[in-house]
């Protein structure tokens, strides 16, 4: 593979992954103490990964922190990042696939067990209230027993928990942060259908005092997401290695019925972003830099190839993220 000048930066990025170095997410911004993004979990599901955790991002803005998605292991990685539950003001779920919500029960449960007093709002697409209410109900027996000491006062797990369901065009304002919501193309239900109204996948733009950052969540190519990301400092984008994902599907899902395999293959092909499409989206949106996460079917040894494919369409700084990487 030939290496052009704009791919040299990709080499340094890969070296940084090996050495544990970190780089600022955008070349045209200077990191300030109140702002930080930590990619807590960076692998796309559903297969567990021994090295990478399920999707979760920790965004700190001043004294507040937000989780964007809450995949399995999010609570442990928050602890590793030095983030406590009292500063966690909100959780933003992009959609309801299990790899994006599998850690929510642990976050809610441990937060409750530690008697965290501050309010927590969980934002997400339609259906988020159903999920959160079910998780809070499942916490009931543990809440009743507490620490097993007679005479303890019962506290409802739902105390200080609020849920707000969002859709395309929703805007949330939180302590100096403005969050704008767009419907993406991770699902392909017919517009206007009952399924389209009931099940949605969202992308989020955070406009903060120091910078703007967009989380695609899971999506295929989408002009709506490109519009949402227009001019943003940072684009946090998902990425799939399609050929390798299809190979893994065949190897690890031998018992799946043929029609399910067909549906999964169609989903991977149309409702995720291959490296070239990440580059096209970043270029069309004119973003300052790209952080690639939710790595589905990828191999670390192919990182330079992914960066090269992105660079064919986008010339800005690009990082293939790793777990616990600070940006």
UniProtKB/TrEMBL annotation:
Keywords: Hydrolase, Signal. Pfam families: Lactamase_B_2. Residues 53-267 form the Metallo-beta-lactamase domain. InterPro entries: AtsA-like_MBL-fold (IPR044094), Metallo-B-lactamas (IPR001279), RibonucZ/Hydroxyglut_hydro (IPR036866). The keyword ATP-binding does not apply. GO terms for molecular function: 3'-tRNA processing endoribonuclease activity. Residues 1-27 form the signal peptide. The keyword NADP does not apply. This is Metal-dependent hydrolase. SUPFAM superfamilies: Metallo-hydrolase/oxidoreductase.
């Amino acid at each position: 593979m030939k290496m052009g000048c704009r791919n040299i930066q990709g080499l340094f990025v890969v070296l940084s992954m090996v050495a544990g170095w970190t780089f600022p997410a955008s070349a045209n911004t200077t990191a300030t103490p109140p702002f930080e993004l930590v990619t807590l979990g960076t692998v796309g599901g559903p297969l567990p990964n021994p090295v990478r955790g399920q999707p979760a991002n920790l965004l700190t803005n001043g004294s507040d922190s937000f989780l964007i998605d809450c995949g399995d292991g999010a609570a442990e990685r928050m602890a590793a990042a030095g983030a406590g539950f009292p500063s966690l003001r909100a959780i933003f779920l992009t959609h309801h696939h299990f790899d994006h919500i599998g850690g929510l029960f642990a976050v809610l449960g441990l937060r409750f067990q530690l008697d965290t007093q501050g309010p927590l709002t969980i934002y997400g697409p339609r259906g988020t209230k159903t999920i959160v209410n079910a998780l809070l109900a499942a916490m009931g027996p543990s809440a009743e027993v507490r620490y097993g000491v007679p005479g303890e006062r019962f506290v409802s797990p739902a105390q200080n928990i609020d849920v707000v369901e969002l859709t395309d065009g929703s805007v949330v304002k939180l302590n100096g942060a403005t969050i704008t919501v767009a419907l993406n193309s991770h699902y392909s239900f017919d517009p206007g259908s009952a399924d389209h109204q009931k099940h949605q996948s969202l992308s989020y733009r955070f406009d903060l005092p120091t910078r703007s950052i967009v989380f695609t969540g899971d999506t295929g190519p989408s002009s709506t997401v490109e519009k949402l990301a227009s001019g943003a400092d940072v684009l946090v984008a998902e990425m799939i290695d399609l050929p390798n994902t299809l190979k893994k599907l065949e190897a690890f899902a031998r018992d799946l019925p043929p029609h399910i395999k067909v549906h999964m293959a169609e989903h991977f092909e149309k409702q995720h972003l291959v490296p070239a499409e990440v580059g096209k989206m970043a270029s069309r949106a004119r973003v300052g830099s790209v952080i690639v996460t939710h790595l589905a079917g990828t191999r670390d040894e192919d990182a330079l190839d992914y960066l090269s494919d992105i660079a064919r369409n986008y010339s800005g700084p690009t990082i293939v993220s790793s777990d616990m990487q600070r940006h």
